[in-house]
Amino acid sequence: xxxxxxxxxxxxxxxxxxxxxxxxxxxxxxxxxxxxxxxxxxxxxxxxxxxxxxxxxxxxxxxxxxxxxxxxxxxxxxxxxxxxxxxxxxxxxxxxxxxxxxxxxxxxxxxxxxxxxxxxxxxxxxxxxxxxxxxxxxxxxxxxxxxxxxxxxxxxxxxxxxxxxxxxxxxxxxxxxxxxxxxxxxxxxxxxxxxxxxxxxxxxxxxxxxxxxxxxxxxxxxxxxxxxxxxxxxxxxxxxxxxxxxxxxxxxxxxxxxxxxxxxxxxxxxxxxxxxxxxxxxxxxxxxxxxxxxxxxxxxxxxxxxxxxxxxxxxxxxxxxxxxxxxxxxxxxxxxxxxxxxxxxxxxxxxxxxxxxxxxxxxxxxxxxxxxxxxxxxxxxxxxxxxxxxxxxxxxxxxxxxxxxxxxxxxxxxxxxxxxxxxxxxxxxxxxxxxxxxxxxxxxxxxxxxxxxxxxxxxxxxxxxxxxxxxxxxxxxxxxxxxxxxxxxxxxxxxxxxxxxxxxxxxxxxxxxxxxxxxxxxxxxxxxxxxxxxxxxxxxxxxxxxxxxxxxxxxxxxxxxxxxxxxxxxxxxxxxxxxxxxxxxxxxxxxxxxxxxxxxxxxxxxxxxxxxxxxxxxxxxxxxxxxxxxxxxxxxxxxxxxxxxxxxxxxxxxxxxxxxxxxxxxxxxxxxxxxxxxxxxxxxxxxxxxxxxxxxxxxxxxxxxxxxxxxxxxxxxxxxxxxxxxxxxxxxxxxxx
Length: 737
Description:
CATH class of the largest domain: Mainly Alpha
Number of strands: 21
Structural class: alpha+beta
Helix content: 40-55%
Shape: globular
Largest sheet: 4 strands, antiparallel
CATH topology of the largest domain: Triger factor/SurA peptide-binding fold
CATH superfamily of the largest domain: Porin chaperone SurA, peptide-binding domain
Number of helices: 26
């Protein structure tokens, strides 16, 4: 073969070269394509380390952790406790939405050529620092942000502000884009004057209502329903909306798992009954919300709304602790808060109670969870072929429809897995979701219907038309009474007298255009007629879904021009612009989201039951420990540092892989097979004093306060076990990335 090539002409050699290159290229492409066929998206996400993609840009672990930490801190600042259970799921979803919006805006800012200058960063650090600064304990006084402390810290040359400066530099283009968008909204003098009238012009009037008949129903003919649809169609307009068909698969627990949780709960119940401090027990053991505040449920409840446990609560006295009660994947111990010891527990109405709870979660084994996840996963794959409803029926299960919802109104069926709502808004009709994990269930969704923003189609609201027609029919039955009132008014009787003749009572209202009386707030026809009438004029009958209305305007008081000052102008300007900017910005973000290709892969990192049994693996997933040694200058001081970057790598068998490595990788065998010996002998090895920088989310560290550690020398890139990684993290004082 080789002799043939050597003896051939240049043309023959060229042909063979082309054939060789084509063959290699074909094999590479073929292997890549075949390797990607049937690959689990969750596995792909874990291998890449991406928590999702936004228009092709990967969402890294650092990006997601930063967004989540900020959302958790906001929740803690607002409610005074860490989010748990469903609150945590909601916080995670809000963090994801904020991250998506931030990345979409960053892309638009880049297209607009917006950049951050050094002066922008300086001004930004002084006037609008990152949100984490406002919640850092170092800058708090009496629980509030203290600008003086922050400004003093800014002037301290020994504090390293570079991480925060980098964050401001990264966020600055988005801030500039937002300022450019918001500054495009203007107000003229006429709009301010109109806003002034809407807020301060007040009307006093007398209103009479003829309510609909107590009974009666419409025939429900097609013509009648069509008329109702045409009449009320514009009132049913909504934003873009989606309807999902969902299948909830409750997590199953073994008798031993249930027994373990119940025994734990019973032990805590006995301790509480014997007088042990309830708040401390909840703080130490509860896995439910408000654990730092005695597990207090922040609202009054009617025991009858709690189902079976409600009867038990109603039979006990304030201060009692109830027996452990299991519901789905948790065991709860309730305590009825005694108003004598807590003034906030005084019931606002008879029978109302305020509860505190101690929650113990059931823990399903990893093998059980893995098996249940695989069952749900196979069912989802089946649903892609035959539909979710049929796939569920084949297993003896039932699905449910969510009803139509938009981005701001999540249906109750998705509270356990709020990420399913965003998935539904961004996928097409008929598509089936991945398996979402809630606190007590696995959830699968299929897009049942989608509609663009605007008025709905008739079939979308078909089930609402008949009740509307029935109401209209009962209003029509009350027309005779309304005609009697109208005739009396036309004959010269006052509205109050005319209403009393048919057994009705009129009522007085006082309202502005901005704030209507609650009794006519849902009747725009009545409000419009009253504001259009002159003082002393009686209007009506006015037909509404709430019956027939009459009204007489008594007084319309116009505010004095002396109230038209700069302070009022500023308040009105701020109010109008804030509402207009919010509506504009929300619409802008919604449009960007609609056009973007967003992939949420966070579910790939929520559990390990979808990764296959660990005992059956031929190789274990490892961590790559990349150590880069360099020099950094902070303030006036320079020092060596080690940057540890932990990322996921492909599954590799470390001892087997080490056998084929070159001499520099011989250190790998020592790490994986004689790791403990190295730990014992590390003081005898060559040690280099290095400074480990760790900027924690809870505050700042100056160079003098940085954690220092002596680390043994490592190759610039090597593979190590999780145990080595944990040891390095322990020495550095920082969490793994």
